Known about the structure:
Elements: E1 2-7, H1 14-25, E2 28-31, H2 32-41, H3 45-54, H4 62-73, E3 81-85, H5 91-105, E4 111-116, H6 119-133, H7 141-155, H8 158-164, E5 168-172, H9 177-191
Parallel strand pairs: 1-3, 1-4, 2-3, 4-5
Helix pairs in contact: 1-9, 2-3, 4-5, 6-7
The chain binds cytidine-5'-monophosphate (C5P) and magnesium ion (MG).
Amino acid sequence: MINIVLFGPPGSGKGTQAQNLILRYNLKQISTGDLFRHNIKNGTPLGQLAKSYIDKGELVPDKVTVDMLVDDLVKPTDTNGFIFDGFPRTTAQAAVLDEIVREHLISEITICIALVVDDEILVQRLLERGKTSGRTDDSDESIIRNRISEYYRKTAEVAEHYKQQYKYVEIDGVGEIPEIAEKIFAAIDKVKVK
Ligand code: C5P
Ligand code: MG
């Protein structure tokens, strides 16, 4: 199995690169942000709760997010592993993810790929995406900036969790999408069990 944590601030290209990884390694993407948006669209109680945080650019409480993630993780799939996109967002989520992967997949996180992008480029990218994504949290600069602040307040420290396990690799996330993909593939091919 290959289980990849795609890490980085909002707008760093996690979702975009997940698409490349799915095709290359036959993985299933679990994007907690997408799962929240799916619930919001369907008007579920989980969606209503998540929306109250997402609309402010804040993080949804760990337990809510973890329970939703586990629901998706335990669904049968014939893929070679998982891409965790936008999760973990806190060190508590990172610790839980290790446990969940051990318990439910009898496996472990293979690698954490961190996409590095300058803050001002992030803001520009997200404002641009907001023109077509229909995402309310992409169309307001103050919400975008709060998402980036939340990242530094609560999420950036997740890197330490994977550094301690020697599973952390940083990739420059600025450039052409296929070039960035190649760098990610090289990092994964170096560590993946054949
Ligand atoms: O990952 P994505 O950018 O799609 O997430 C959108 C929003 O969903 C975040 O800004 C946050 O409000 C919420 N979220 C969260 N916890 C996660 C993933 C997303 O609270 N693990
Ligand atoms: Mg995303």
